[in-house]
Amino acid sequence: MSSSAAPGASFKAAHHPEKPSARAVASSGRTWTVSIAIPGSIVTNAQTSELRAWLAGQIARTSAIFSVAEIVVYRDNLVAQPTFKPRGKYRDPGGDEGGSGKEEEDPATFLGRILEYLETPQYLRKALFPLHPSLRLAGLLPPLDCPHHLRRDDDSPFREGVVVSTSTEAGGHQNKKRKTGGGAAASEGRVMVDVGLWDPIEASGGEGVGEATRVTVRMPTPASPLASLVPPSTPTAESGLYWGYQVRVADSLSCVFSECPYETDGGYDISIGTSERGTPIENILDDIPPFRHLLLTLGPLSGLELSIAADPLIPLEAEEASDLFDHWINVVEGQGSRTVRTEEALPIALARLKSTVERKGIP
Question: Could you write out the three-class secondary structure of the chain?
């Protein structure tokens, strides 16, 4: 190598360390999932709106790093939940300037909205999220940079998109309001989808899909020149690509289980609760059987036991809280602080479970 070459030039040329490492590279597929359940009240421990947004960003980053498939934010209802009011131009257009109740948002909804915003690829946010008070500081949070957060020049077998027209003649009209349906039904199953390229693309499989709906698109190939809409689980199931997380806000801890989206697949077949009074995590790793859908539940600052005891649909006292789960674990044995906050316990728990989860998840 020439003596005039910049230090590390060959390493940079081979590995491109300046670029994200989470590239959309296909590997073996998987269908097992990891879900986490966290209380919305954790944001009330943050003293300012900046700290509340930062906490939500930490939860989102941790979930993306450990490939969490679902985040459930539950209302623990242990104390009266405060509401957060907007400021300035970020007031909710549906509210009045005086700050009526229409503008206020409870902690669980606040946290869920920011989590969902951060998971959405940047090129879709303007179409799916109007200005909202909860999102006032979301633009300052570090990006997740997941494999589905693609740049315009990135190649990927799949892309996230938003339906801009249900007819190929309708052009690039975009409905700014977020929907999960609505709009006119797609004519003959063809829709125009903005997938972050220069122009929208035509895709099949859009029967009953309305405008402004977020979709997952299988991109065209020489063998199949027409793109098609697929379930959001397809990139992971077929190619092993981590394709972001789903966000669900549950009215109570019991609803975390009763509203499980995997009921047709047997629900959560492994549930894990966390407590400083639980069994050391290293003692239960070998006892975790093969699974399809694992749920890790964390409690508020006062502990998961009180959340369980306060739920009228869970017939357990605080002393019996461990009976709700398959495993009741302590993720930080011998902690040096009196308390371990939820946002601190989450990455520790996921890191210590990671190798076991990857080994025992049923493909």
Answer: CCCCCCCCHHHHHHHCCCCCCCCCCCCCCCCCEEEEEEEHHHHHHCCCHHHHHHHHHHHHHHHHHCCCCEEEEECCCCCCCCCECCCHHHCCCCCCCCCCHHHCECHHHHHHHHHHHHHCCHHHHHHHCCCCHHHCCHHHCCCCCCCCCCCCCCCCCEEEEEEEECCCCCCCCCCCCCCCCCCCCCHHHCEEEECCCCCCEEEECCCCCCCCCEEEEECCCCCCCCEEEECCCHHHHHHCCCCCCEEEEECCHHHHHHCCCCHHHCCCCEEEEEEEEEEEHHHCHHHCCCECEEEEECCCCCCHHHHHHHCCCCCCCHHHHHHHCCEEEECCCCCCCCCCCHHHHHHHHHHHHHHHHHHHECC
Closest C-alpha to 308, from 323, 286, 326: 323
Q: Which two tokens stand for residue 221?
A: 């190939």
List residues bridging with 126 in a β-sheet.
none
d(CA 108, CA 114): 10
Whether this model's pTM surpasses 0.90 = no
Residue 33 has pLDDT above 60, yes or no: yes
End-to-end Cα spacing for the chain? 46
Question: Kind of pairing, strands 33-39 and 246-250?
Answer: unpaired
Does residue 148 surpass a pLDDT of 70? yes
Q: Rounded to an integer, what distance in angstroms lies between the CA atom of residue 282 and that of residue 347?
A: 16
**Which residues make Cβ contacts (< 8 Å) with residue 69, sequence separation at least 6?**
33, 34, 35, 236, 245, 246
CA–CA separation, 45 vs 58, rounded Å? 14
What is the tens place of the pLDDT at every residue in 239-268?
999 999 999 999 999 999 999 999 999 999
Q: What tokens does 213 get?
A: 């709906």
Mean pLDDT value across residues 276-285: 95
CA distances from 289 to 170, 270, 271, 284 (A): 52, 8, 11, 10
Tokens 């649909």 -> residue: 313
